[in-house]
Every structure is written in C-alpha cells, then in structure tokens.
Amino acid sequence: MQNNSDLNELLNPRSIAVIGATNTPGRVGRIIFEQLLRFKGPVYPVNIRENEILGRKSYEHVEVLPETVDLAVIAIKAESAVRVANDCARKGIPKLIIVAGGFSESGEKGRALEDWLVSITQNSNTRILGPNTLGLFLPHNQLDTIFVDHGDKALAGGGGVAFISQSGSVGTEALGLASNTGFGLRSFVGLGNKCDLDELDFLSWFGQDPETTCLAFYIESLSQGRKFLEKARQTSLIKPVVVLKAGRSEAGADAVSSHTGRLAGSDRVVGGAFRQYGVQRVFDDEELCDAAKTLSGLPPAQGNRVAILTPAGGYGVMGADHVEMTRGGIRLEMARLSNETQEQIYKTSFSFASCRNPVDLTASANDRMIGDALSTIIDDDGVDIVICTAFFSPPSITDGLVESIASRVRDSQKPVIVFTQYGPFTDSYLRQFHREGIVGFPSIGRAVRAARFLVERAGILQSIRA
Amino acid sequence: MQNNSDLNELLNPRSIAVIGATNTPGRVGRIIFEQLLRFKGPVYPVNIRENEILGRKSYEHVEVLPETVDLAVIAIKAESAVRVANDCARKGIPKLIIVAGGFSESGEKGRALEDWLVSITQNSNTRILGPNTLGLFLPHNQLDTIFVDHGDKALAGGGGVAFISQSGSVGTEALGLASNTGFGLRSFVGLGNKCDLDELDFLSWFGQDPETTCLAFYIESLSQGRKFLEKARQTSLIKPVVVLKAGRSEAGADAVSSHTGRLAGSDRVVGGAFRQYGVQRVFDDEELCDAAKTLSGLPPAQGNRVAILTPAGGYGVMGADHVEMTRGGIRLEMARLSNETQEQIYKTSFSFASCRNPVDLTASANDRMIGDALSTIIDDDGVDIVICTAFFSPPSITDGLVESIASRVRDSQKPVIVFTQYGPFTDSYLRQFHREGIVGFPSIGRAVRAARFLVERAGILQSIRA
After folding, report:
1. Among A238, B65, B213, B369, which is disulfide-ready with B296 (CB 3.0 to 4.6 Å)?
2. What is the pLDDT, as a whole number, of residue A462?
3. How many C-beta atoms lie closer than 10 Å to residue B141's C-beta?
4. Half-sphere exposure of residue A197: CA atoms within 13 angstroms, side-chain side
C-alpha cells in the first residue's frame, strides 16, 4: 500500500468517467451521473448498452473515451466492477471510486474479488477508493458521488470540516445534519472497505489542505495504526483531529470483525494512544458531528470558565448543572462575573435581572438587551467561554436577535456558543445562526459539551507542544 | 395550601373566560382567545375597552359574565391580574390561570403581589395555576392556552404522557418535539411560580387519570417534598413517574434560588429519596422527553438482554458499544441469539448476513427481510428488548419498511425500539413510526438509552412492590 499519494486527481479531478451511468431512473449509476452534470469539468458516461445518457454521448468502454480521465466512478456490480477497474488501470486512469458492495464484507467470494482489486493497485499506479463506499462530496468543487439523497446541499458549503467515514450510514448523518441545521463541510469521504486508500491518506491530504480547519473520522479499524497516530500528532499541532473509534466494547469489537473482517484493537490501547498523539476522541456519531462543528468554527478556550446568558431561567439552571458535571475528564467551572460586569448588565436590562452567572434576563428581555449583556460578558476577563441562549418565545424578542447576537460574536476573540430552541422552528434558527458563522446547538447539554471540546482542544495543544 | 383538589374545572372545564382577550394581533390575550375558539364549550372574552372580539361579544368585567365560568385565564399584567383574580374569587370562579410574569421571580414588589395571590386562594375556594405560567395544553379537549407557537398540534394528540413543567422553556421543548417527530401528550401543564397549585396536585390528578400512562416532571424545587414522594410511590405502582430535578450542582442550585426564590434541596438527598420512592430520575430535558416517550409506549423489560437488527454495520457496532457501557447504574447486555434464530435469519435473508448479535443484514436487505428477521428475533427467548434500525438508503428498502416493521411490532409482547435516521427525512420517518404507535429515536445512542429506561422501570416496580 502506498502512502502520501497525491489525491488531487480524486478530490480535484479535471475530468470524470461514470461507468454504469444509465438513463434508468432510480439506479445508482443514473443518480451519480446526474449529480455530476453540475461538475465544472468534462464528465463522460460509459455504458455498453446506451448511445446517449441524459443528452450526452455514451461510451462503450473506458478504452474509447476521448481522454484519459483523472477519475472513474465505477457504479456497477462487484464482479463487473473488478474487470472494469482492471481496464481503467491499463488505460492509466489514476483514481477509481468503486461503489458496489459484495466484497470482503460479504464472505469468501467477495473477499477473493477484493484481493483482485488489491492486486490491481499493486501492479499499477491506479489508486482505489472503496469498494463498498458512499463516495465523495466536496461542495466547493460540485463533486458529489453520494447516491443517497442528502437534502439541501447549499447548506453544506463554505465550511472547513473534512469528514471521513468508514461507514456509509454514519456518513449520511453528517450530510443530513448539513441540510437540516447547517454544517460546514470541506469534504465528505466514504472510505468503504479501504482496499487501497485509507484514513491515513486522507489525514495526510486534508491535514495539508489550508481550507480544512478540522478533520473528523468515523473508524472501525485502523489500517496502519502507528503511522496514522504519528501523522495525527503532526496534524493536531495545526488543526483538530477528532476520531470516533467504534467497536470499543467486546460485542462491538466482535461486530467490527463481522462487518469489516478486521480486528478492532483493544479499546484501552486505543484510548491511551489517542491521548498521547493528540487525537481528540469522541464516543458516538452525534458527538463526532458536534465536535467537528465546534472545533472547525471556534478557537481553543483560554481557560475553563463558562458564563451562561439566558432569558429563560430553566436553561440557566440546567446549563449550570451541565457545566459542573465532570465529563470525559474535562472540568468546566461557572465563571464568577466581576461586580462591574454585573452592574453593567443591570444598567442595560432590568433591576430584577439575575446578574450572577447564569445571567437570567427573564422573559421580559429584548433583542438589544441580550446583545448588550453578551458584549459585557465577553469583555469580562474572568470568562473564557460564553454560552448564549437564543430563545424566541419571549414577547419582546424578535428574529432580529440573530443579528443582535451575531454582531457581538463577530468582534469576539472568545468562543461564543449559541443554544437555541423553539419547537418546530429550532432547525430554522440553527440554519440562520450557521449562515452568520455562529456555532449553535439545539440542546443546552450539547452546548455545554461543545465548551468542553474547546477546553479539551486547548489541553491537547498544550500537551503535544510540550 | 389545599391538596387533592378536584382539578376537573381546570383540566376539563365546561366554560372559560379569557381576561385580557383582545383584537390586537400578536398580543398574548389575542393568541390565547383565538386558540380557545376551538374549545367545545362557551368561551367569553373579557375586556373593558372592546365591544366585540373576533366576532364574539366582549364583557367589561367578570361580574357581568352570563354564567360563573369554571376557568378564567387571566392574560393581563401582574398588578391588574391580582385585582382581577380577587374579583374572580369573589364571583366564585373556581379555577384561574395567571399568565403574567413580574411576581416572585422578579424582586420585592413582585413578591408582594404574589403574596396577595396566595391570600386570595387562602380566603376563597378559588385555585390558581401560576402566575408566570405557559398554561395548559390538553389535545383531547382542544384546551390550549399556550401563547407560543408550537407547531402542528395534531401530532401531539392520542398519547398518554402528562408533562408537567416548572419551566415554560423546557415545556416548549416537549411541545416542539410533539410537532417535529410525534410525541403523544395527554396533557401539558406549565406550573409557573406555583403560588397555589403545584406538582403534587397534578401528580395526584394524572396519577388517577386512566388515560395517562406516564407522568413526566421538570422541577426546580419541590414544594411539598415528602407528600410528593409518597404520592409518587403509590402512582409508580401503576404507571411510571419520571422526574428531572434541575439545580443539582452548587451553581445550579444558586440559580434555582435566583430563578424561583426557593431552595433547590441537596442533590444527594434528592437522589436517594427518588430511588426509595420509585421515582425514575433523568438528568436533562432531552432525556426527560425520551423517557416519557419510551415509558408511555412500551412495557417494562423482562430482562436486560438486547438484540440489535440493522442493515448498516456501523450502527450495529456503535449500538453494541452503547449496550455494553454501564450508564446510570443500569446494566444492559447483548443477547446471545440461539442457533435456531441464526439459521432462520440466514434462511430468510442472505448467506453473507451476519446473524450473531448485532444482526447485520447488510445494505442488500429489503423490507421483507428486515421484517422477517425482526419476527425471528422477537421470538427468541434469549432476547428481552429489540432495537431495530430502520434505514431507508439501501437500494431495496422502500417506505414499505415502516409497515413491514409495524406489523411485527403490533403482535409483539416484547418491547421493540426503532432507530431511524436518513438525513433530512429523519423527522418525517419518525412521525410515520409514531403514527403506527412505534417508539422511535433518531440516534442509536438514544435508542439504547430507551432500552435502559425499560430495564430501570422493571427494577423500580420490583423494588417498590417488595
């Protein structure tokens, strides 16, 4: 297996062939080809049984394509896919994505087919992503081979998260999040069976990509454990590397072995190694997405003192409870606001506001008061992280609250995390905050957990720089 | 303070007056009155400045109403509200809801106003809900005084959860859930400042209500701790009582004191007492809603052995990890499927399916195979709880999967929990399962946590019956 390969032809190809492209609606080859029509470079359909696909000339074989494309997406069944992969390698096509399942994850025969793929990569310069992969989605390139519907793709753009997943289903969660509430993706990569390209290749690539601000991995088995860890440490000096390593428990590890045919590795060893090499560890898919969103959008915390601002007392109380629970070894504490801060908040809100931390402006608050109190709290030297509750039900609060908060957050060097929730409108408000570049969550527990990620990141930087 | 009052006039009134009803759009009095136009009995607007409100004759004072209503909703500012409450008590109106804030939660003057309300209840037979309350929502009665928009109310009906919240904002979460993903409410009650009616009154009432299958409380301070616990134990013999007691940490308790003017009570004492009295304790608002949904819809588990069925390997792995983590002292284990079960699953699916637990039918599965495997797993005597992953991205899986699963679950005595997720369509699938009476969650972690609730409930029943 080669390393440090140039993935440019895969992630930023000049031209693409789609093998198995078809006019038949609902087929994977049709979905992928149709999506790639938005791609800026040439995209050639290859299908021996059709002359024209969605208005474009179809080619019988890769041999007769007008150019040697950078990337071929092979969307046909396992056995044929292997034969075509061989043709592509002979033709000198440098990068292949093999979509089909039915390889090492599905028994003896599939394993033999996958061995064949491995031998193709060993005997050529062709590199393979997959098989059994959901493929790629790079919003900035309009490069999308994901054959399941993942909603409003516009909401996934403009972000810095490279999300790399060994599981297609976990991948769809991040993509779904993107369209539900906004999630700034630089790239989604489905690793599939990793017959060739694996997490190390993408760690290397996105680690060096200046537009990538955070790497998030869902991994069941590490193909090259030590090299991955060493590269992770280098990368972590520059940007966060978050990993969900599934298969922790005995039963989970058994399941990994059934699912991937590989050993999961002892969980305790993995935990220790991650700490040593500056990998930020998370424990489920929601946490992975939340950590990526937080760490790609906010700086590490300068300390662990959290202030909470709210117009709804109940969430101040629960927020304080969450802050004072120690989770994952990361201790937060409730900041002590200075007398000046408290006075200033009184002055700009009400005499009956509760100006200790949590700061409860009560349901009489309006957009301006929340913005003013937020500024005041940000300016308090005793505060490292601010959690601002954006609640839209109090009568004097309007949709203008989004801008009132955003204008203060834009000027802040300190991390500010928004918690917003308003029944059926929650996702819509989360999208509005996302568009303003603000990191928001729909539960106070998740907002406090996000603060923990920032404190943990600061600790990791300190320990790997030492 | 009186107890065991008859709350029929509040929760099932024959007639209602809305004081402060108005034609002015956006005002609380308008929103409440407009909503109550759907109420089946007479609803009278009271407003000294208007002759007609939304086409109905308006009354100047409660004194001139054509009848003594069962319930008056008072939607005017604090000081006037107290005066009107006094008028209502003199007129003999038995139940009042006082919406306004500006009472004990907001300083000296407010506290004096609230003391006045207390004296009204002490010198009359009138009972007060609030002040500072979001009010009531009883879908079966079309009785809705909630003045914040909470989406599609149709989705909240038909359920058995009595959700009683001291915090309005936490309340809106449950109501939002209802419209986002389906949540079967019997009743929502906002307690507000609890100047009179408190959690004990509603525990007594809904404990005896045959249509209520689960009680869920968000509480910051227990007004009558011992009586509440004793009533909870009686109730818990018949139906689950779930309580989120906020203000656990020191800072949280401080915040409760600012927010409500009451002491939160030592957290350790609360924890021990809850265990002793059969109260099922949860720790945040998401958990409260999830527990209520689970416990109102599914029987206690007969044991702690969980089987997981999935067409997506990654979630099988993470699910097994979640099962084998001990959380909140509740131990689950992965069930060992019998050889007959495994053979039967092979027979009805694929030779390459992984038929140990987690059962991974792979992305080649179809609706029928998942249904068949689900039946087979339900019938295995070594399984106490089944978690079924409903994934809609595999090519042979259609929307028919909902019915394929539902038809098997309907006949099952064993609890089956569905985990479903499909990016932007997740909520829609959750609603479909909800309509079929199936308990579903959008994360595998929450599905496993739901299994824990059922095991915990079984343990509580055992211990309080002993």
Report:
1. B213
2. 95
3. 16
4. 34
Cα–Cα distance measured from residue B266 to residue B250, given in angstroms and rounded to the nearest whole number: 9
The Cα A281–Cα A240 span in angstroms is 11
Residue type, A30: R
Alpha helices in A312-443 (DSSP H): 313-324, 339-348, 367-378, 401-410, 426-435
pLDDT of residue A5: 54
pLDDT in tens, B378-389: 999 999 999 999
A-B CB pairs within 8 A amount to 260
**Which residues in chain B have Cβ-Cβ distances shorter than 8 Å to A325?**
249
> Maximum Cα–Cα distance for chain A, whole Å?
79
3-class state of residue B362 by DSSP:
coil
**Tokens standing for residue B308:** 């997981």
Q: Do B176 and A424 touch (CB under 8 A)?
A: yes
Interface probe with B: pick from A191, A281, A321, most Cβ of B within 10 Å: A321
- SS3 assignment, position B463: helix
E-assigned strand segments in A130-263 = 136-138, 143-144, 161-165, 185-190, 214-219, 241-245
What was the ipTM of the complex prediction? 0.80
Cα B130 from chain centre: 19
Q: Report the distance separating Cα B155 and Cα B138, nearest Å.
A: 12
Residues of B in contact with A327 (CB under 8 A): none
Measured in angstroms, the CA of A75 and the nearest CA of chain B are apart by: 13
| Residue A301 DSSP class | P
Length of chain B: 466
The alpha-carbon radius of gyration of chain A (Å, integer) is 25
Residues β-bridged to residue B217 = B164, B243
User: Residue A26 corresponds to which tokens in the numbers above?
Assistant: 């609902």
- In terms of CA atoms, which chain B residue is nearest residue A180? B424
Closest CA to A317 of B262, B253, B134, B173: B253
- Report how far residue B139's alpha carbon sits from residue B176's, in angstroms, rounded to the nearest whole number: 14
Q: Using a CB-CB distance cutoff of 8 angstroms, which residues of chain B are in contact with residue A144?
A: none
pLDDT greater than 70 at residue B2: no
- The helix-helix angle for B168-181 and A313-324 (nearest 10°) equals 90
